[in-house]
Write a structure and sequence with these properties.
The complex is a heterodimer of chains A (357) and B (358).
Chain A lengths: L2 H12 L8 H12 L4 E4 L5 E5 L6 E7 L4 E7 L5 E6 L11 E6 L2 E7 L4 H4 L16 E2 L5 H7 L5 E4 L4 E2 L4 E4 L2 H19 L7 E7 L7 H10 L3 E9 L8 H4 L9 E4 L5 H13 L5 E4 L7 H6 L7 E8 L7 E4 H17 L11
Parallel strand pairs in A: 3-12, 3-13, 13-16, 14-15
Antiparallel strand pairs in A: 1-2, 2-12, 4-5, 4-9, 6-7, 6-9, 7-8, 10-11, 11-17, 14-16
Helix pairs in contact in A: 1-2, 1-5, 5-10, 8-10
Chain B lengths: L2 H11 L9 H11 L5 E4 L5 E5 L6 E7 L4 E7 L4 E7 L11 E6 L2 E7 L4 H4 L17 E2 L5 H7 L5 E4 L4 E2 L4 E4 L2 H19 L7 E7 L7 H10 L3 E9 L8 H4 L9 E4 L5 H13 L5 E4 L7 H6 L7 E8 L7 E4 H16 L12
Parallel strand pairs in B: 3-12, 3-13, 13-16, 14-15
Antiparallel strand pairs in B: 1-2, 2-12, 4-5, 4-9, 5-8, 6-7, 6-9, 7-8, 10-11, 11-17, 14-16
Chain lengths: 357, 358
């Protein structure tokens, strides 16, 4: 991977971007995009859009959401312990013993999510069950509520501290690849297309969307403002090749097995044909999944909006999603970028995506 | 029922149209509509519209969704068995022992949903006797192993159950997926009746065969933006409650063959509901009335709160056993629904608006 691209990826993954407070990540993203996009702008909620070849046609949206799941302070007790609520789909069972960063008005406050010592819980039934989120508290080392309230306030957002690390020369671990890698791929594909500008006929709108984890809200705004002719949405998808996951139930997706495409619902057949052809041209092997029956991505908000936008989801295989040890392959990431850039470059002026009736 | 109309109905119902893969059904629908509509066209995801009297106002949409529920290949194991996910709201316990068609790239592949012989079932431990969940079902296509299976089908291929249209009496008819191909059928059949009495028509009528209702009322969401109708009627299957095992106290009474059903409240605009009542009376069509559905939405939910609010209503054709391969309905109620809708449309005056009077 190109050094500048890798550095940008690392920086993006190490910046906190909980849904609703994505500004730090968006600044990095915009700074990076400005080096090669024709125009970079943001909207009222902080969605960022980088445009290449704005007079081109058709208008292709590349979307990845930059927000990550997190926590938010709900209540500060008089004993100085902090109760919190989830931002997005947080698994309470995985929270005990985690270090967190509380993004307070005056800066970051370190905290830990308390974990009662196993010596003290031995044999107690109540601790056999996973906790509910309101059973947990954050300890910031404050001696009482008054001391705690000087440093943090109700409504402060919280992220986990686990940053990016390489496990092998290809596999990487970090909190929240979901879905900062999606916004990374979107702008990186735009960069690659910019290098081959003479071949480019379509207009590319790379979007780093906010607030996906709390209900696909940023993309809902973006699609109305951008009015694309087609949309390619980059998202993490579940790699199902770690122990304990049934392929019969969840399909078979391998880490480092190549980016995925999905069939059905929002995934428009004509857009899929373009992606398949681009993958073939770049000698990238795509994995195929059935559409996500359990969850939605930004594509779900995009495809039925403004009269219908032909869309498709490109998945980055990810193990342990929504944990602090998400795992991806850099090769999958690079291949997804190659396929996306090639797809844009292969679109001719006036191309339309239609189900043939 | 007119012979050509019945042939169209049969052809539409025997065509597989799982959500997201409706094009073959839309072609059947379009071919029929072209024989009398002023304009027939489709959008990017395959929503299909047939128009009579374009340009006139109000613009009234008659909607039925062309998609049916189904399954999709999720995984093919090394033994050659196929695992599935649902397309839409599928009841897993109805599937063991069904024949299915897998719509693969090279054509239709016949499969059967594996069914445990009762001899074995009775000897299983109690926790294994529970009704299966959908991911526990396996489809057998007779493949020797995974490799052989993968040459014939692929992950992502849609699946429908086998269950073509058959007559049970001269009026009662059984098929899979009446929900909601009979809605799409009634919409275009109404348009035909209206086209025959064109000189009495003062509004624009658009018959709409929607895609992707069963996976989240998405097709209608696209069309309401593109069409910007002045009123919209969703034609659906009414869930009959006149068979054994259903409590009227819980589900009300909707009878098979008892006449088209209208609903009160929520998306059902009182002005439109009043017109259904008046025209049913004037044309001696029995009408069943029920409170609005508290749970699942219909395309009317997509229509009524979009683009600033579109006066909408649902009219439903009584159907038993919906979301199974043996849905049961009546030709009489299909025809009554089309006649009632035609009467309502022909009664609309030029530039009329539908408003709650405040």
């Amino acid at each position: 991977m190109r050094k500048q691209s890798f550095d940008f990826l690392k920086k993006l993954l190490s910046s906190p971007t909980p849904s609703g407070l994505e500004v730090q990540g968006q600044k990095l993203w915009c700074d990076y995009a400005r080096k090669f996009a024709d125009k970079v702008s943001t909207d009222s909620y902080g969605n960022a859009v980088a445009v290449l070849n704005p007079r081109g046609s058709p208008k292709i949206m590349l979307d990845g959401h930059i927000d990550e799941i997190g926590l938010m302070i709900k209540h500060i007790g008089d004993d100085g312990f902090i109760a919190f609520q989830a931002i997005g789909g947080v698994d309470a069972a995985g929270l005990r013993g985690k270090r967190v960063s509380i993004h307070a008005a005056k800066g970051i406050v370190r905290g830990v999510i308390g974990a009662v010592a196993p010596h003290l819980t031995k044999g107690k039934d109540k601790d056999a069950k996973p906790p509910a989120i309101h059973d947990l508290t954050i300890d910031i080392g404050a001696k009482d509520g008054k001391a705690a309230r000087k440093r943090v306030a109700v409504g402060d957002t919280i992220t986990f501290v686990d940053d990016f690390e390489m496990l092998t020369d290809d596999l990487a671990v970090a909190r929240a690849f979901d879905n900062r890698v999606g916004s990374w791929v979107a702008v990186e594909a735009l960069r690659m297309a910019a290098e081959k500008r003479d071949r480019l006929q379509c207009a590319i709108y790379a979007c780093s969307s906010v607030q996906e984890e709390v209900g696909l809200k940023g993309a809902t705004m973006n699609v109305f403002n951008v009015r694309p002719d087609a949309a390619l949405v980059v998202e993490v998808t579940h790699a199902t090749d770690s122990p304990g996951i049934s392929a019969a139930q969840h399909g078979q997706v391998k880490l480092a097995g190549g980016p995925t495409i999905s069939i059905g619902r929002e995934n428009h057949p004509a857009v899929l044909d373009k992606l398949r052809a681009a993958a073939k041209a770049k000698k990238v092997k795509l994995q195929t999944e059935a559409f996500s029956a359990s969850g939605g991505t930004d594509a779900l908000a995009i495809y039925s909006a403004v009269g219908g936008v032909p869309s498709a989801v490109i998945g980055i295989p990810t193990r342990y999603m929504h944990s602090t040890v998400e795992m991806i392959s850099l090769t999958d990431l690079r291949q997804a970028t190659d396929v996306l850039a090639e797809t844009c470059l292969s679109i001719s002026k006036g191309d339309e995506f239609r189900v043939k009736v | 029922m007119r012979a050509e109309t019945f042939e169209f109905l049969r052809s539409l119902l025997n065509t597989p149209t799982p959500s997201g893969f409706e094009a073959p059904g839309q072609r059947v629908w379009s071919d029929y509509a072209r024989t009398f509509a002023d304009d027939v066209h489709s959008d990017k995801y395959g929503n299909t519209m047939a128009v009579v009297n374009p340009g006139a106002r109000p613009k009234v949409v008659l909607d039925g969704h062309c998609d049916e529920i189904g399954l999709m290949v999720k995984h093919i194991d090394d033994k050659g068995f196929i695992y599935v996910q649902p397309i839409g709201l599928v009841a897993a316990n109805r599937l063991p022992g069904m024949r299915v068609h897998i719509h693969a790239r090279k054509g239709t592949v016949l499969g059967v949903v594996a069914a445990m012989p009762p001899h074995m079932l009775s000897q299983l431990p109690e926790d294994k006797k529970k009704p299966p969940q959908i991911h526990e079902l396996a489809i057998d296509i007779g493949a020797a192993d995974g490799k052989a299976a993968r040459t014939r089908v692929a992950v992502g291929a849609p699946i429908t159950t086998v269950g073509d249209l058959e007559m049970m009496t001269d009026d009662v008819v059984v098929a899979r997926g009446f929900d909601d191909r009979i809605g799409a059928f009634a919409a275009v059949e109404t348009l035909r009746l209206i086209a025959e009495r064109r000189d009495e028509l003062n509004c624009c009528v658009i018959a709409h065969s929607a895609v992707q209702e069963e996976v989240g009322i998405f097709g209608a969401m696209m069309s309401v933006f593109n069409i910007r109708p002045d009123a919209a009627i969703a034609i659906e299957t009414a869930i009959c409650s006149d068979h054994p095992g259903v409590e009227p106290a819980q589900f009300g009474v909707i009878a098979l063959g008892g006449g088209p059903t209208i609903f009160i409240g929520r998306e059902n605009h009182p002005e439109l509901v009043a017109r259904f009542r008046a025209q049913a009376k004037a044309n001696r069509i029995p009408l069943q009335v029920a409170p609005h559905d508290e749970g699942h939405g219909t395309n009317a939910s997509s229509f009524y709160m979009e683009v600033g609010g579109v006066p909408s209503a649902i009219i439903s054709i009584p159907t038993r056993y919906i979301h199974s391969a043996i849905e049961v309905s009546t030709l009489t109620d299909m025809e009554r629904t089309a006649r009632l809708l035609a009467a309502v449309c022909l009664n609309i005056k030029k530039d009329e608006t539908f408003r709650v009077k405040v």
